[in-house]
From TrEMBL:
The lineage of its organism: Bacteria, Pseudomonadati, Bacteroidota, Flavobacteriia, Flavobacteriales. This is Magnesium transporter CorA family protein. Keywords: Membrane, Transmembrane, Transmembrane helix. Its main location: membrane. Belongs to the CorA metal ion transporter (MIT) (TC 1.A.35) family. It comes from Flavobacterium procerum.
Amino acid sequence: MKAFYANNNGLVEIQKWTSNCWIHIESPTESDKNYLLEELQVPEAFYNDIEDIDERPRIEIEDGWTLIIMRIPIKSGDVKIPFHTVPLGIIFKEDICVTISFYKTEIIKDFVAYSQRKNIEIEDNFNLVLRLLLSSSVWYLKYLKQINHKIKLAEDNLEKSIKNEELQALLQIEKCFVFFITSLKANDVLFQRIKNLKAHKANYDPELLEDVEIELNQAQDTANIYNNILTGMMDAYASVISNNMNNIMKQMTSISIILMIPTLIASLYGMNVPNGLEESKYGIWILLFVSILLSTFGVFLFKRRRWF
C-alpha cells in the first residue's frame, strides 16, 4: 500500500507525488518495489535492509541518500507472542522522503491523525524522523499497558493453579518484554546519534528533542519495571505451584495411610492361622471397632500435625 502526504495544517493525504511530500509504503508489493527502485532510484541495499525483520536501528548515508531504521511495536497476531517489534525505514534525499514498513502497524495512521488534530507541520526530513520516534515511544507505552493487563489476568488464574499453562503464558509475555526493552535501547542509541549530528544539530526543535527523550526514557523505565515485576511474580508463583502440589501429595499420602490401617488389620486376621477370634461370634464387630478406632486416632493425629 502506497500513500502520499503533504503539509496542510497537519499531514493530509494527496493523490500523487509532489516535491517534498512524504511517501509511506506499507507491506510493499512488487509494483511498490519497482516504483522505489526504478522511479525514485532508492538504493536496493537500503530496501533489503528494511525487509530484514531483525535489522537493528541505525543511520547510514550512501550516495547522498540517508537511511534511518528504527524499531516500532506491533500487534503480531500470534497468540503465543502477542506483541513484537519490527523495523521502520526512513529513506530520504533532497526532496524525496520515503518510509517503508513490511508489516501493518497502527502507528502511521495515528501519527497522521495526531498531526491533523495538533496542526503539526513537518519542517524537514529529520523533523519527521524525530516525530516518528516520539510516536513510536507513545505506542510502546500503550502496548505495555495492554501487556500489563494480560499479566493481571494470568495472575488471577495462577492463584489456585497447580498447572504449568499459566506460567507458560507469563513466559510468553516475558518474551514481549525482551523485544520491547532491546528495541527501546536501540532506538535510544539511534536518537542520541541523530541528536548529535553536527550538520543538523542547530536546526532541531529543542522542545521536540526533549519530548522524544522523555518518552523514550519513560517507555524504557516502564518496560523494565513491568519486566522486573513479572520476573518476581513468576518466581513466586513457581514456588506456589510447587507448594500446592506438595500439599496435595501430602493429603493423598495421609489418606492412603488412614485407609491402610483397616486393610492391615483385616489382612492379619484373615490369615489361615489361629488368632483367638475365629470361633467368636463377635469377631467381625471387634475387628471393625478396632479398625475404626485406630483410623479415627490416625485422622486426629494427622489433623493435629496439620497434615490434612
